[in-house]
Amino acid sequence: QVRLVESGGGSVQVGGSLRLSCTASSISFSSYTMGWYRQAPGNQRELVADIRPGGITNYADSVKGRFTISRDNVKNTVYLQMNNLKPEDTAVYYCSAKHPFLRDYWGQGTQVTVSS
């Protein structure tokens, strides 16, 4: 059974930092594009960042220069380092695993709350 388990969410003040982790099981992790999406109340789910199997990264304009995505193919884990957090970063953050020929997988989500 495929599982994506996120951790590291929480509450932080403006300007603070958090690191999210997502550990995958029962997939060929190194062959998947791993990503982080977020969804705030009343908004659609949006891409925050993703990282391809070869390590190429992609970021939403709103987080460039503040967030860093990375992966550890030995630990089957993807990370999202979030610095200089802003109130508008408040959302539920979801981990994703995408493959061009297989189905997508999603984690259960972890809440990030940034207060001023």
Structure characterization notes:
With about 120 residues, the chain is mostly beta strands. It has no helices and eleven strands. The chain has strands spanning about 5, 10-15, 20-25, 35-40, 45-50, 55-60, 65-70, 75-80, 90-100, 100-105, 110-115. Strands 2, 4, 5, 6, 9, 10 and 11 form a seven-stranded mixed sheet that branches. Strand 4 and strand 5 form a beta hairpin. It starts with a strand and ends with a strand.
Mean pLDDT: 97
Number of strands: 11
Q: Give the proportion of residues in helices.
A: under 10%
Q: What oligomerization state is this entry in?
A: single chain
Ends: how far apart?
40 Å
User: How many separate helices?
Assistant: 0
Cα-based radius of gyration, to the nearest Å: 13 Å
Give the SSE map.
Blueprint: E1 3-7, E2 10-13, E3 18-25, E4 33-39, E5 46-51, E6 57-59, E7 67-72, E8 77-82, E9 91-99, E10 102-106, E11 110-115
Parallel strand pairs: 2-11
Antiparallel strand pairs: 1-3, 3-8, 4-5, 4-9, 5-6, 7-8, 9-10, 9-11
Structure, briefly:
With 116 residues, the chain is mainly β.
Quickly list its features:
single chain; mainly beta
